[in-house]
Amino acid sequence: MSGVLAAGGLGVLVAWVVFALAGWFVAAPLSVWLGGVVGALAVLLLRDTVPMRGLVALLAPFGVMLPALALRHMAARLGLPVMPFGTVDLLVFLVAYIVFLASAMGALPVDIYRLGYAPFPVAVLVLAVCAYGLITGNWFLPLVAVLGQALWITGWGSSNWFDYVTHVLLVPMAAVTLVLRLF
Known about the structure:
The chain crosses the membrane at residues 30-47, 54-71, 91-110, 122-141, 161-180. Keywords: Membrane, Transmembrane, Transmembrane helix. 70% of the residues lie in helices and 0% in strands. By secondary structure, it is mostly helical. The protein folds into two domains: 2-77, no CATH class; 87-180, no CATH class. It is globular.
């Protein structure tokens, strides 16, 4: 089943890239449709090609977060109400996630990544993210956390919950977003 999830995640990310590029030339609704069609065709027809396998090797595991952010961005461009992340939230996330990555790579004496294998710490983390959503009124992250937990419990992919709800590309994405807010 992890192959289906990887194909779905890749399809959404290809759709998002096409949507973003097409958005320079056509209206948002058309760019979303164009991205969706190209993403679906790329996954269905080009799944076993070297470029698509290379993207999977480079970006996998896709988890829930990257496809969810891509879909959120497309929904916002279509005019759906999407609550933006606050600057302070992004700064806190960026610092915390860099510390998380450093601990996962062994640069710190504690390995936070190991918590993602155990049910109790995962439940506590999901409840903490849900509490954050309740406090801020932003339900995007709680939905990602709960969906990631559901996929983790079913065993459809990684055996670590963090693989569903985080991705190393979140660091440059958050950094670029923060820099763009300066201008």
